[in-house]
Amino acid sequence: FESARRSLTTLSITQPLASWLRPRFLTTASFSMARDPNRAPARLEGDTAGAFALATAFSNSRRNELGLTIDWAVLAQSAFGETSLAGRVLGALVPSDLRTVRDRQSVYDRTGFTPPIWYQLGLGGLDDMRELAGVPAVSASESFLRTATAGLSLPLGLRVGVVYEDQNRLAFTRSGAGQTELRSSRREWPSGSLSWSWAPTVPLLRDALVFVNAQVQYRERETGSEVPFATGGRSGVRTEERALTPLLSLTWLHGVLTSFQYSNSQVVDLTNGNVGRTDQETWNVNVNFSWRPPSSLIRLPNDLRTQARFSVSDVGRCLQTAGSGECTSVSFTGRREWGLQADTDFPPNLTGGLSASYLVSEERHFDRKFSQLTFTAFIQLSFISGEIR
User: Fold this and answer.
1) C-alpha closest to that of 285 among 249, 327, 240, 333
2) Chain CA centroid to CA 315, Å
3) CA distances from 264 to 32, 205, 298, 315 (A)
4) CB-facing half-sphere around the CA of 353: CA atoms within 13 A
5) Residue 180 near residue 172, CB atoms below 8 Å
6) What are 143-195's pLDDT values in tens digits?
7) Cα angle at 144 between 141 and 146, to 5 degrees?
């Protein structure tokens, strides 16, 4: 009696065609099957005819990935030389990567048979996996993913990166004696980042400021899904998202770290002619440093690690119904939080500290405001029992 079976097959090919051109191919198939004698048996022919068989559940998946990496700097050096104009220009490009992925999977439950070997190896198309021996799958899906990444290294510590991503998915879910179709898509473009790293060299400035790291990220993403009606036509939902996130981090003398982060995003939902819009704005400020309090106040064996933080978050949502030209506000929530935490180590294995936070939250659509003051004292004890040999 075989109660369970699992298998995994993988093939990977990564043979460089040149020092600057590296294609790759990866295919993976998995299969799992379980027979449960405690479940109600399955009929081999319909619901009321045919012999009983042990309830068998199984699933499979097949993932094929084809990719290509291009190292522009190596290409420029080999083709034009490091000192040529073309070599310097192409040398500023970071390696680019192109990738396409196809993922197919299916799930069956309470069948009375063992699937054929081609199914266990993940062979065949989506239509082959949707139905076996007249039994429809509980779920079957196929997705295609295409991605591309590229970047550019500029003088003065600047670096630019871009990302493109596009995915389409077709899924079928068992509904009664048939299956329901669901199509979904996701696209991210334009999407990229600009970063800057700098270590001051001016004598007066470098005595106080050690390192600067700044980054700006921008992303536009569109997702959608649609379900066909039995009488014709389709019902769809589409979401559009835009997000901007700048970040500035400063490292000062004696290990003092300050960071400032801002995030602004807009999400638009379109459903059957209605439009919902959500705007979110967030600020975060953090200061981290270590210091030793005067021995006249308290004697500590180690420095006191201290973190001070402040955050602001505002989220507003409005709704525009079909045929209306105005987006009516339906909710607004705000949050303000101040926090302070300090902790230190007490040899050999004890850590303790104190923290305090003050939170103010607001729900303007309910005309309600809430504040909370919290003090926390904590101790952490770490130990190892026995000896590892």
Assistant:
1) 249
2) 22
3) 44, 32, 44, 10
4) 16
5) yes
6) 999 999 999 998 888 999 999 999 999 999 998 878 889 999 999 999 999 99
7) 160
**What is the Cα–Cα distance from 130 to 203, expressed in whole angstroms?**
70
Contacts of 145 (CB under 8 A, 6+ apart): 99, 100, 101, 102, 103, 165, 166, 167
Rounded alpha-carbon distances, angstroms, from residue 324 to 119, 237, 241, 274: 52, 19, 22, 9
Task: Please state, in angstroms and rounded to a whole number, the distance separating the CA atoms of residues 224 and 355.
Answer: 44
Q: What is the CB-side half-sphere exposure of residue 182 using CA atoms within 13 A?
A: 14
Residue 241: closest CA among 264, 268, 263, 216: 268
Strands 304-320 and 274-291, sheet pairing: antiparallel
Residues in the chain: 389
- Between CA 69 and CA 94 the distance in angstroms is 11
Are 108 and 78 spatial neighbours (Cβ–Cβ below 8 Å)?
A: no
How far is Cα 8 from Cα 39, in angstroms, rounded to an integer?
A: 27
CB 304 within 8 A of CB 324: no
Local confidence band at 51 (pLDDT 50, 70, 90 cut-offs): low
**Which residue is associated with the tokens 């960071």?**
259
- What is the average pLDDT value for the chain, to the nearest integer? 90
**Residue 278 token pair:** 């959500």
Phi-psi label, residue 328: left if phi above 0, alpha if psi -120 to 50, beta otherwise: beta
CA distance 118 to 30: 12
Can you list the pairs that 177-182 forms with residues at least 24 positions away whose Cβ atoms lie under 8 Å?
177/136, 178/136, 179/130, 179/136, 179/137, 179/140, 180/227, 181/227, 181/228, 182/225, 182/226, 182/227
Is the pLDDT score of 85 beyond 90?
no
Contact 56, 113 (CB under 8 A): yes
64-97 burial code (b ≥16 CB/10 A, e <16): bbebebbbbbbbbbeebeeeeeebeebbbbbbeb
CB atoms within 10 A of CB 225: 16
Q: CA nearest 14: which of 26, 24, 4, 5?
A: 24
Q: Which residues contact 385 (CB under 8 A, 6 or more apart)?
A: none
**SS3 state of residue 353:** strand
Residue 192 tokens, joined? 């990229």
